[in-house]
Each structure stands twice: as C-alpha cells, then as structure tokens.
Design goal:
By secondary structure, this protein is α/β, with parallel strands linked by helices. The chain contains 7 helices and 10 strands. About 45% of the residues are buried.
C-alpha cells in the first residue's frame, strides 16, 4: 500500500477529493485518509511544515498502516539558476542542510548514522509519468494561471534537495547550503526527514517538488494559492499517469 504525504492541504486536496471508499482516522493530531485512487489502495495525510512534523507523520504511516512505499509531494524554492518556477524536481539525493554537529561530526552528517545524503529508490514509471505530464502541462491550466505564476514549459530535474527547519529567503542562507552541497537544486522543510525515517525502516520512497519560487528576497509567491492552483493539480495528474502505467 502506498502512503502519500504533503505538508499543506492545498498541495494534495485534489487527490483527496477523488479518493473513493474513504475511511479517516485521527492519530497524533493528524487525519489519515485511507481509500482507493485510480484503483490503487493508499493512505493520504497532511504532515504540516517542518522536519519533526514530517518525521512523526511518516513514522505513523509505516507503523500503523503498514505502507510499503511513500511519496511526498509539495512545493519548494529553487536555488539553482536552471531550475525555474513550475519545474519539477524528482529527488535523487536529500540532505538536512541545518544539521550541524561539528566538530564531533562533519556538517550535515546525521550523528551515529554516518550519513549525510539519503538516496531515494528509483521509480522509472513515476519518472515517465512526470515527463508525460510536463509535455502536456498546457492542457491542465488556463493561459491566465500560467502567466500569473510565470510558468513556461516545465522541466523535470533529477537532483539533490536540501531540507531544513527554516524558510530560506536570502543569498547568505543559500551560500551556506551550497558551501556544503553545491549541487543542490532546491530547498524545502520536510523531504530529508522523510528520507531518514524511510532509510531507517527500509521503506522505498520518492520526493517530488514543484518549484514555486526562487528562495531569495525576491520571492513573493502566494504559497497557498500556488499550492492549490498549481502544485495540487501537478500532483493529481502525475499520480494519474503513474497509476495508469503501474496497472498495465
């Protein structure tokens, strides 16, 4: 069974609205929605923001619902010049940029795990679904929506995502992240925590991020609106393509 997580309701409310045979359960102030989507059984939950919230949620998913795969989808800020608003980053590596137990351990290394970078399980059908969506993106949005958010020809990027419990919005913050991990494409607040929990439990996972802004002082996006009008639709259509391919 698949576990689906987003930090905000708006990032996956469209998927929730299409769940069938839904049963909900409240645990630890989280509502877990179990049902079927495109004939696939899954559990959907909104973690809230931050690494602790995400880690708590994914641990509950694994222990209570016995999911055997987890996907986290949501928005992120680009810190790479080639990663634009509307692009999609499928993580091939995740790091907690605010973990620093030096001099006892190297910066960003997780104490006692001897790891700094976590690598998701590669899911080729999910990658193909994202590519398929990106090629057809104009079918899902009005011209006005695309213009309002500055989206043009979304691209899929494979790369490193950095997570931390702070909202990155300045060049100085970005410089610190790139000092230790210069190949980072975007920043957010949950993915690497999900990765660590899944690594420790041996659960395959994927992290999908839709770029909402450049993580700098010029970022002015309405995050809830972008999540609802753009990211939520991205997630819905990508999952449709993925599940359709998986059922063949």
């Amino acid at each position: 069974m698949l576990g689906l997580i987003s930090a905000m309701y708006e990032e996956m409310d469209r998927v929730l609205s299409q769940l069938e045979h839904v049963e909900s359960q409240v645990i630890g102030q989280r509502t877990f929605y179990r049902g079927t989507f495109q004939n696939q059984e899954l559990v959907l939950v909104f973690s809230r923001w931050g690494k602790v919230a995400a880690a708590t949620t994914v641990t509950q998913l694994i222990n209570t619902f016995k999911v055997d795969q987890i996907v986290f989808s949501g928005v992120a800020g680009s810190i790479h010049p080639q990663v634009k608003v509307g692009d999609i980053v499928l993580a091939n590596a995740l790091v907690q940029h605010d973990m620093n137990a030096s001099p006892l351990f190297p910066p960003t290394e997780i104490p006692l795990l001897e790891k700094s970078v976590f690598q998701p399980h590669f899911e080729p059908k999910l990658e193909n679904a994202i590519q398929h969506f990106a090629h057809q993106y104009a079918e899902y949005f009005s011209k006005e929506t695309l213009e309002n958010f500055g989206i043009s020809k979304p691209q899929l990027h494979h790369g490193k995502i950095a997570s931390g419990d702070l909202f990155v919005h300045s060049k100085s913050q970005i410089d610190v992240i790139l000092l230790h991990h210069p190949d980072t494409l975007c920043v957010e607040m949950e993915g690497a925590a999900v990765a660590q929990v899944c690594y420790e439990y041996g659960i395959p996972y994927q992290i999908i991020r839709i770029i909402s802004d450049e993580a700098n002082a010029n970022a002015h996006v309405d995050f809830p609106l972008f999540a609802k009008e753009v990211a939520g639709k991205y997630t819905l259509e990508i999952l449709k393509h993925w599940f359709k391919a998986s059922s063949l």
